[in-house]
Design brief:
Radius of gyration: 29 Å
Number of strands: 10
Strand content: 5-15%
Shape: elongated
Number of helices: 18
Order of helices and strands: EHHEEHHEHHHHHEHEHEHEHEEHHHHH
Helix content: 55-70%
Distance between the termini: 17 Å
Structural class: alpha/beta
Oligomer: single chain
Largest sheet: 6 strands, parallel
Length: 437
């Protein structure tokens, strides 16, 4: 097993590049299918969010897999290889696991400690399981990362400092308004829009909130859960006309809100208020940048949030040091468990070979003494098996103990060489365990 992580995020790429690299769930699944169809990639999952696209893979060869995955990312995103390379980061083996654990805890997020990434990682694993691109290696890795992320939020002070993208955006947008928002509009009905709607009604119980979505039924479900009004896109002008706060987060590939939406509101309704805050949490962007140039308008998008977070230097947030210690401890335990797992097929193959030798010799014994009574024959067989088990017990226990130490795989290799084990037998054991998942 060799882990490889490759990707780009808000830390390495500007928003316009991330915008081009944003993939639909369907394209992500196709990318993963193509990845495991290459010579060097055995398993793959992808964490695709509004501010990152990362692929985690179990690979046979580092350089071959790196080339294959880089080319696939370029192909599916449409970002030329030369441009893409300058924004990619690559992590291998333990560093790849460490990076995913860091991501799961929210330490690599645009907003330090944001918990939504756990749901995104859970969705990434589910997609890999559904498409068959996640096997034992990545199931173990992702499940461990999810556990680490949950521990970070429950066992440290991270949540005291952590925000969501929604609350970080509101921190930037609300000071622009003269008073608390009286009427707001949330465009979209996905998980981020649901978080935005829930946050708004919690902060402002008397807020007149409208949820607008292309599919009215989804807007109605979200609106009903927060006590808001639902509307379809055909009612967007009316919803915008009276709103002093607008939050948009859809999966659209084209602009949802343009300058014209606010310059020419429904003439039958009052003009838009002088101070309007528009929050764009989508990638690709939902809101035309020119909206922020309108008199009285403030546009808060992902780029602005990222700048504010970097300027605020939240690296010293409460709980971050404790989370890093937690990640390090979990990483060591994970590495030890993987080393122990790696030696298991060799031990199983050794015991299988020994059992075969015992069976052969007992068969030869039976042929030489055909008249031996069953009780004596059974006692001889049990004695031979006990002798073999006792001879193998100490070396197999020791090799398992030694395997958890750094470099422990060499002991399994030595065991295999000393007993001349068939490599195909150990490989077959590994495959069977993967298929049993």
């Amino acid at each position: 097993m060799s882990l490889l992580a490759i990707g780009l995020s808000h830390r390495t790429a500007p928003i316009p590049v991330l915008e081009r690299a944003a993939l639909t769930p369907e394209l992500v699944e196709k990318l993963l299918g193509d990845a495991v169809g290459t010579e060097h990639v055995h398993e793959a999952i992808a964490v695709a969010t509004c501010n990152r696209l990362e692929i985690y893979a179990d690979v046979a060869k580092f350089h071959g897999a790196l080339t294959d995955l880089s080319e696939l990312i370029s192909h599916y995103t449409g970002v030329e290889a030369d441009e893409l390379t300058s924004h990619l980061y690559v992590h291998y083996d333990q560093r790849a696991a460490a990076h995913l654990f860091t991501v799961a805890c929210g330490l690599d997020s645009m907003v330090i400690g944001e918990p939504q990434v756990l749901g995104q990682l859970r969705a990434a694993l589910a997609a890999g399981q559904r498409t068959g691109t996640a096997g034992r290696v990545l199931n173990d890795l992702a499940q461990t990362a999810l556990r680490v992320g949950k521990r970070a939020h429950s066992e440290t002070g991270l949540d005291q400092a952590g925000q969501s993208l929604v609350t970080a955006a509101l921190d930037l947008a609300l000071p622009h308004l003269a008073a608390a928002p009286a009427r707001a509009c949330v465009i979209g009905a996905g998980s981020m829009s649901a978080l935005a709607a829930t946050t708004l009604v919690r902060l402002y119980p008397d807020l007149d909130l409208t949820v607008v979505n292309r599919t009215v039924e989804r807007a109605e479900r979200l609106a009903a859960s927060v006590g808001a009004t639902a509307a379809g896109l055909d009612s967007l002008p009316a919803a915008l006309a009276g709103s002093d706060l607008v939050i948009s987060c859809t999966g659209a590939t084209d602009m949802v809100l343009t300058k014209q939406h606010f310059e020419t509101p429904d003439p039958a309704l009052p003009a838009a208020p002088r101070a309007v805050a528009v929050i764009d949490l989508a990638l690709p962007r939902d809101v035309e940048p020119a909206v922020g140039e309108l008199p009285g308008f403030l546009l808060v998008d992902l780029a602005r949030i990222a700048e504010a977070q970097q300027a605020g230097d939240r690296a010293d947030a409460v709980g971050v040091d404790a989370v890093r210690t937690l990640i390090n401890d979990e990483l060591n335990a994970y590495a030890a468990a993987q080393r122990a797992f790696a030696v298991a097929p060799t031990v199983t193959a050794l015991r299988g070979m020994a059992a075969g030798v015992v069976d052969t010799e007992l068969a030869r014994f039976d042929a030489r003494l055909p008249g031996l009574d069953e009780k004596t024959r059974a006692e001889v067989a049990n004695t031979v098996r006990r002798v073999v088990d006792k001879l193998l017990h100490e070396p197999t226990v020791r090799v398992k103990q030694l395997a958890v130490e750094p470099g422990g795989a060499s002991y399994a290799m030595a065991l295999s060489a000393l007993f001349n084990l068939d490599p195909a037998t150990a490989a077959a054991v590994s495959r069977a365990e993967v298929e049993d998942l």
